[in-house]
Design goal:
There is one protein chain. By secondary structure, this protein is mainly α. The protein has a single domain, classed as Growth Hormone, Chain: A (Up-down Bundle), CATH 1.20.1250.20. The chain is built from 18 helices and two strands. Strands 1-2 form a two-stranded antiparallel sheet. It is globular. The chain starts with a strand and ends in a 7-residue tail after the last strand.
């Protein structure tokens, strides 16, 4: 029996589906970040430099950005449940290939492809946004984002500890099995979403530049999101090197354990979402940039001690998480729900491009100036620029007194179809 899921459905049903999407996002986003605490081990295994090893997470994130462009828009044209299920199976195979990589070239190729297909969290976010009424959208997105950030941070702890005891390949073999288990859970419990537009795939892709060109709020979110995740990647892509150098002399497992500390930031996501619903996401975005900037100065001043490093980490994760929730609350309020996947495609492409740039910048700066101070000043400069851009873009939005334009396909698209609570097993 099909039961429609609309904005008026009861909160318990919506919360269960939202929680499931958060769990899916948590376990799948881990695949992108397993390699970061393992860079020293990977570099030693293949006999390459710090800069060369840091190219692996950069390629993974670039692949993720490409995957967002290629695959996330499909969420507006086909059932998101099937999209998630198929990708889980493909990702399982790619994780196995990463673990078996015989040299750095194959590792780079398989890591890039892993990033391309691990876009499941970015399919889950518009799925959740479609479920939520406008006055609860920030909270709903915050819950899913908590799952994503928890996955990012837990992945580092798991890969760091596993790499320290079993070598860098073991975590990818385990993750391959985990994806198969998750595929079974999705097939059993995740409801169908239906399609939200009558456009075909190529028409959907062709509509992306026009959406970005017309919507200044989306433009602003892309800019600030890219800067925030750039700084996030500067820190995390070099943390293993910082910890391996004086005065710490620690292994990759410490980098992984520190990732668990950052969960305190992800726990604040639903709170940030509720605050964005009340005060406005532009306000919480400005606060998040300031917090990330303070984190950078803490790293400069106190990064040579473990308490200082931990304090910087907590502030950074809190600021980046708050900024991401704020931006996504903004972008899903601009256009109708039928555009959710395309809007998310545009935003997250810029977001992870910023992350890839941050990984490269962090590795290059560390290679030339191997100190936490240099990394902190780099991050601080980026956050000052981000805050100035945020202020300028907000003034532009207010001065333009913009009116959201609906893309040309609105007349061709019926209202978004309601979700069907019918898992495959119930048919």
């Amino acid at each position: 029996m099909n039961t429609p899921l609309t904005h008026e459905m009861d909160d318990k049903r919506r919360d269960r589906i939202t929680l499931l999407l958060a769990v899916i996002s948590c376990f799948t986003v881990m695949n992108i970040y397993y390699n970061q605490p393992l860079l020293a081990l990977i570099g030693h295994s293949f006999g390459v430099s710090v800069t060369t090893a840091s190219s692996i997470p950069s390629l993974t994130q670039l692949g993720f950005g490409l995957g967002i462009v290629l695959f996330v828009p499909l969420g507006d044209t086909i059932d998101r449940r099937w999209l998630i299920l198929i990708k889980l199976l493909v990702v399982s195979g790619l994780l196995l290939l990463v673990g078996l990589a015989p040299n750095l070239i194959f590792l780079a190729i398989f890591s890039f492809l892993l990033g391309v297909f691990t876009v499941i969290p970015q399919v889950s976010i518009p799925f959740a946004a479609q479920l939520a009424p406008p006055n609860k959208r920030g909270r709903t997105i915050g819950i899913v984002m908590s799952g994503i950030f928890a996955g990012i941070l837990i992945s580092r702890a798991l890969s760091g500890a596993t790499g320290n005891w079993l070598g860098w390949r073991a975590i990818f073999f385990a993750a391959s099995v985990l994806m198969l288990i998750l595929a079974a859970v999705v097939a059993r419990y995740l409801p169908h979403s239906g399609r939200s537009t009558q456009l075909n795939y190529w028409q959907v892709l062709q509509s992306l530049p026009g959406i970005l060109r017309r919507e200044p709020v989306i433009q602003a979110a892309c800019v600030t999101g890219a800067f925030l995740f750039c700084v996030f990647s500067v820190f995390w892509s070099t943390l293993a090197f910082v910890l391996a150098a004086p005065p710490f002399h620690d292994g990759p497992w410490v980098a992984g354990i520190l990732g668990l500390v950052g969960i305190t930031g992800s726990a604040a996501a639903p709170i940030v979402g509720r605050l964005a619903d009340r005060k406005g996401p532009a306000f919480t975005l400005g606060v998040s940039i300031v917090i990330a900037g303070v984190s950078s100065m803490v790293l400069v001043l106190f990064g040579k001690s473990m308490p200082g490093l931990i304090a910087s980490l907590i502030l950074l994760d809190l600021g980046v998480q708050a900024g991401l929730v704020s931006n996504q609350t903004r972008i899903y309020s601009v256009l109708p729900a039928a555009y959710n996947s395309r809007v998310n495609t545009i935003f997250m492409s810029s977001y992870f491009t910023g992350g890839a740039v941050g990984s490269v910048l962090g590795g290059a700066v560390w290679d030339q100036f191997p100190s936490h101070t240099a990394l902190g000043w780099l991050s601080a400069a980026l956050m000052i620029l981000a805050f100035l851009l945020h202020i300028g873009l907000q003034r532009r939005i207010r001065a333009a007194a913009w009116v959201p334009e609906v893309a040309a396909d609105q007349a061709m698209s019926p209202p978004p179809k309601t979700l069907e609570v019918q898992s495959e097993s119930s048919r």
